[in-house]
């Protein structure tokens, strides 16, 4: 582990460009600069191509013998399969509009973190092999020969992109670096190069149904513990069903919510909400993961991990699926799921809220509803008894996750929920929220501790906006709708805006939710005293 | 930059000399014909080359609220849910450069505050450049059509409405030079943009500068016999190039025509194809509706995943023990 600089040191960023051309500079791959590599047996277990043992800090990465051919064929295949990829390789005019839209560029000043240049790392190789001008003019046309240094550079920079798509919002042609990064990571995986922090969760998800490798009996145990806590706080006993056929709704949330603080409080919020409205639902230990690290691996792996959701809905005869708070999970559901794994099983129907009768036409095909859509609808129809004063000890702001914002457009629903359950709500500055929101600095499988400095650099724009509302309005609560955020925002807040805690939206719902038969609430969901509500 | 400058200068000199040394028919007729053919065929080929590749997933970049619950106001322009919204989104993108209008610039103030400034000059000059170029292009049809349609004459009147000088100054002529100079200056003096710029970013700008520059020279300074130009162009249009007339037209005309020919030939093989490509960008030209409608990926691979049965086989005993439902009882289960 390299030593983390202080925030004051880190923010003194120079945006000056090097003297030499970007083709002549090379990244320094030292501990702290890249995440740990995936283990050979993990890659073998997943039948990934060319699994091997390698160390990024050594000179030789033990690439397969015919690595150049693998890259050439891999590029060729993807250019044929994805119009987006081919087009994005061809039409960039290098206007630079995307340059300072990237959180990693803002936080590092490294010109190769400009989305345009990140794409050029791959584009230059594409030009050399696939364009006439590049073949003839070479460097003059911005083409360069593929060598092992280029592969290292790809590994370095395509794992400093969180596929957040902020650049694509500002690009006059909508060029999406996420798409380019996905292709580059697929190519790296073809050579057997992956991250431990991504491939291990993928492997776990495949085997145990969730990223964290929680076995079915452990999953049940964890949820029952949470129910004990709920009983402690509210006096209401909840016994959620597991793997039970014949329920209307299958509920799937990211496993992070069942694993660690503060995600578990969000999970408690879901359970309390379902209990209160009498939702006919089941949990599943087999489909116990909403998130999908396959999105950060390859289209093939993404499909493989996502397929369980419909398979389980079919096995259990669920009519529709309710999905928990998770960012990239919802990118997959909104933009890939039905295309990859649809059409849906025959037992499934267009989702209808059993409480309000609202038909979710926008989910007619995928048959999957976002929990904040569901809850916003309940609140609108006045189906919940809420006491927002139970959140009065908190001053709240909301972090839009990249994917729900820019690959879905889920902006108002969580805000409607939050404003109904909190009296003190303030937005961060407009250039940092909604469709212009900034990444937590560690999306797309980069939330690993060995690259903490990179994470904190990427977290600068979000951290700085948070700091701003902390100073201006006394914000001490950062609400979000994402399990990765719940893992990545606490270190971000501790570093950039100490004193702010991270909450899932449904934890705040749970605080405010007045349940039938509850005892007088003196504790919040974290079992901290509620000010002014202590036992007399 | 230097290489592009040299290349464009060389092209100008070639045309100038060529016109002086008896290659009029080559520079006046064969090259433009070839260039037009290369442009048309090349452009069409590039478009077809993109079009033949599938769009496996609907991946629009959503820049606003989705259409979901009836009382939540959606943002149909930034997050279209149907093709009508997409058409409007694309029109705004193509005609007004809407995404570029969002542009901001980041600075770090007082060493501790990240600030986002509005940054609209790129949008302004890019838009000015494209529209001026379009107007100039349309104005040129005065040379290709007989009689000259009213629309073109009206456009000329509008364009020269400031009534400056004789011949009247066209606003677009001045503006297009200004805009190209801004775009060029940005590449040279904005450190970030300079760092990412390649020779093929400078070359088209300089080429266009040469093109409009030679045009302006002819109209305002060196003067050419416009009647002869018109007669010659009409002879080109009717596919009977009249090289006799060329004797009355100065070399600047050849420079102008040659720059145009080079631009046309360069176009399909360069980044200038963004003109066609922008219409095909999957992050802009698709509705955000794959949760509501089935979208088919033509190369969708077969499903491969670990089934529930395989999962239960591995964990059956522990599941049974924990009281989880199992499809098959463990071997040592008590009936």
TrEMBL record, chain A:
- Give an example GO molecular function: 4 iron, 4 sulfur cluster binding
Q: Which residues form the signal peptide?
A: none
Could you identify this protein by its name? Hdr menaquinol oxidoreductase iron-sulfur subunit
Tell me what organism the protein belongs to.
Desulfovibrio psychrotolerans
Query: Which UniProt keywords are present, listed alphabetically?
Result: 4Fe-4S, Electron transport, Iron, Iron-sulfur, Metal-binding, Transport
Boundaries of each 4Fe-4S ferredoxin-type domain copy?
83-112, 152-181
Keyword Iron-sulfur present in the record's keywords: the answer is yes
Concerning SUPFAM superfamilies, the annotation shows: alpha-helical ferredoxin (SSF46548)
* Coiled-coil segments on the chain, per record: none
Matching entries from Pfam families are given as: CCG, Fer4_8
From TrEMBL, chain B:
Q: State a single Gene Ontology molecular function.
A: nitrate reductase activity
Keyword flag Electron transport = yes
Q: Where is the NarG-like domain?
A: 118-275
Keyword field = Cell membrane, Electron transport, Membrane, Oxidoreductase, Transmembrane, Transmembrane helix, Transport
Superkingdom as given in the UniProt entry = Bacteria
On whether Electron transport is a keyword of this UniProt record, the answer is yes
Identify its membrane topology class: Multi-pass membrane protein
Query: What processes in GO biological process is this protein linked to?
Result: anaerobic electron transport chain
What the entry lists under InterPro entries is as follows: DsrM, Heme-iron_electron_transfer, NarG-like_domain, NarG-like_sf
Major localization listed first in the record, in broad terms: membrane
- Cellular compartments annotated: Cell membrane
- One GO cellular component term noted in the UniProt record for this chain: plasma membrane
Question: What residues form the membrane-spanning segments?
Answer: 29-48, 121-141, 161-184, 205-222, 245-267
Name of the protein in its database record: Nitrate reductase subunit gamma
Q: Which organism is it from?
A: Desulfovibrio psychrotolerans
């Amino acid at each position: 582990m390299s030593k983390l600089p202080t925030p004051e040191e880190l923010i003194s960023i120079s945006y000056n460009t090097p003297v030499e051309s970007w083709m002549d500079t090379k990244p320094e791959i030292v501990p702290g600069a890249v995440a740990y590599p995936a283990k050979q047996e993990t890659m073998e277990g997943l039948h990934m191509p060319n699994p091997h043992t390698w160390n990024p800090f050594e000179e030789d990465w033990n690439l397969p013998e015919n690595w150049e051919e693998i890259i050439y064929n891999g590029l060729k295949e993807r250019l044929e399969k994805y119009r987006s990829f081919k087009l994005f390789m061809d039409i960039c005019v290098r206007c630079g509009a995307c340059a300072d839209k990237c959180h990693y560029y803002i936080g590092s000043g490294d010109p190769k973190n400009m989305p345009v240049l990140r794409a050029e790392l791959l584009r230059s190789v594409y030009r050399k092999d696939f364009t006439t001008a590049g073949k003839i003019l070479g460097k003059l046309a911005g083409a360069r020969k593929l060598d092992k240094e280029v592969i290292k550079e790809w590994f370095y920079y395509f794992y400093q992109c969180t596929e957040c798509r902020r650049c694509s919002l500002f690009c006059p042609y909508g060029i999406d670096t996420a798409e380019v990064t996905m292709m580059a990571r697929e190519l790296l995986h073809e050579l057997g190069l992956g991250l431990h922090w991504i491939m291990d969760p993928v492997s776990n998800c495949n085997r145990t149904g969730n990223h964290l490798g929680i076995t079915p009996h452990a999953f049940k145990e964890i949820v029952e513990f949470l129910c004990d806590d709920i009983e402690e706080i509210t006096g209401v006993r909840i016994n959620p069903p597991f793997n039970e056929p014949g329920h209307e709704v299958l509920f799937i949330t990211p496993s992070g919510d069942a694993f660690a603080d503060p995600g578990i409080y969000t999970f408690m919020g879901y359970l309390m909400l379902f209990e209160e409205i009498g939702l006919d639902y089941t949990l599943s230990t087999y489909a116990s993961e909403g998130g999908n690290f396959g999105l950060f691996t390859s289209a093939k792996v993404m499909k493989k991990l996502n397929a369980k959701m419909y398979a389980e809905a079919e096995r259990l005869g669920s009519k529709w699926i309710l999905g928990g708070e998770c960012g990239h999970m919802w990118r997959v559901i909104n933009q890939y799921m039905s295309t990859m794994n649809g059409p849906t099983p025959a037992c499934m129907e267009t989702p209808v809220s059993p409480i309000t009768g609202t038909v979710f036409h926008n989910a007619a095909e995928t048959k999957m509803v976002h929990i904040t859509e569901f809850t916003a609808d309940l609140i609108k129809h006045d189906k919940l008894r809420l006491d927002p004063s139970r959140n009065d000890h908190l001053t709240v702001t909301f972090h839009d996750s990249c994917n729900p914002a820019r690959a879905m457009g889920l902006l108002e629903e969580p805000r409607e929920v939050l404003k109904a359950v909190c009296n003190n709500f303030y937005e961060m500055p407009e250039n940092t929220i909604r469709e212009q929101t900034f990444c937590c600095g560690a999306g797309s499988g980069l939330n690993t501790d060995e690259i903490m400095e990179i994470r904190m650099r990427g977290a600068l724009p979000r951290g700085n906006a948070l700091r701003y509302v902390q100073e201006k309005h006394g914000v001490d609560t950062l609400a979000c709708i994402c399990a990765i955020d719940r893992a990545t925002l606490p270190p971000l807040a501790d570093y950039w805006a100490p004193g702010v805690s991270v909450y899932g939206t449904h934890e705040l719902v749970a605080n405010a939710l007045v349940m039938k038969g509850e005892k007088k609430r003196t504790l919040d969901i974290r079992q901290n005293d509620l000010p002014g509500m202590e036992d007399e | 930059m230097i290489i592009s400058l040299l290349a464009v200068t060389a092209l100008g000199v070639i045309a100038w000399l060529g016109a002086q040394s008896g290659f009029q028919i080559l520079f006046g007729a064969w090259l433009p014909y070839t260039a037009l053919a290369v442009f048309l065929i090349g452009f069409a080929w590039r478009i077809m080359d993109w079009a033949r590749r599938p769009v496996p997933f609907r991946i629009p970049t959503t820049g606003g609220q989705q259409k979901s619950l009836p009382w939540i106001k959606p943002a149909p322009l930034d997050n279209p849910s149907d093709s009508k919204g997409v058409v409007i989104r694309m029109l705004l993108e193509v005609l007004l450069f809407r995404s570029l209008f969002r542009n901001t610039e980041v600075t770090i103030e007082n060493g501790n505050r990240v600030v986002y400034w509005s940054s609209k000059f790129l949008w302004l000059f890019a838009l000015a450049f494209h529209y001026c170029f379009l107007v100039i292009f349309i104005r040129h049809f005065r040379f290709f059509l007989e009689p000259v349609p009213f629309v073109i004459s009206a456009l000329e009147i509008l364009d020269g409405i400031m009534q400056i000088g004789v011949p009247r100054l066209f606003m677009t002529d001045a503006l297009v030079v200004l805009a190209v100079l801004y775009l060029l200056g940005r590449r040279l003096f904005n450190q970030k943009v300079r760092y990412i710029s390649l020779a093929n970013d400078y070359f088209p700008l300089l080429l266009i500068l040469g093109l409009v520059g030679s045009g302006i020279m002819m109209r305002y300074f060196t003067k050419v016999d416009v009647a002869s130009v018109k007669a010659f162009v009409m002879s080109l249009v009717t596919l009977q190039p009249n090289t006799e007339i060329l004797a009355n037209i100065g070399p600047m005309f050849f420079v102008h025509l040659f720059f145009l020919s080079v631009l046309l030939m360069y176009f399909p093989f360069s980044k200038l194809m963004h003109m066609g490509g922008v219409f095909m960008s999957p992050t802009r030209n698709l509705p955000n509706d794959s949760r509501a409608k089935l979208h088919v990926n033509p190369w969708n691979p077969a499903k491969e995943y670990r089934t529930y049965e395989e999962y239960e086989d591995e964990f059956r005993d522990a599941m049974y023990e924990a009281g989880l439902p199992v499809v098959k009882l463990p071997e040592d289960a008590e009936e």
